[in-house]
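Sample 3 of the quickstart, ligand dinuclear copper ion:
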Amino acid sequence: MKVDLYERIWIWAAALMIIAFLAAVIFSAGSHAVHPPSRIETVDPTKVLTEGEFTQAGVTTREDGSVLVTGLARMFVFTPGVMRVPAGVPVTFRLTSPDVIHGFQIVGTNANAMVIPGYVSQFTVTFDRPGEYLVLCNEYCGLSHHLMQAKLIVEEAP
Ligand code: CUA
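Result:
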């Protein structure tokens, strides 16, 4: 079978593009930790409002000085609506939703997670710059999606 020269050129061009894209994905995953969350923790979404850790949504300081934020995202509020955390300390967020998929994006930082009913989204961030940060839902979740926001206050380290 004879393959036209132009066709061969395009076959190789397409193959090289795929290799380049794969390499970019692998490189960003390895060097910049850009990847989907790798841990999976499930929770019963019908019970998160009535039992377990999410009934006590809030900010707590652990024994080692790190901070834990337990939070709920639901139509169309975040609980807690205002979070106060110290700067320069690892802050671990544990988030879930009792209804639909929401987003949890801390504007101006690289903290950005999907909050999915049935799962616990967990990530840890250290905020270096004190200040007020806007937390937005960036997954369309219903008619008042655009009103869904919270505030994160990063306070000067003690
Ligand atoms: Cu919650 Cu959009």
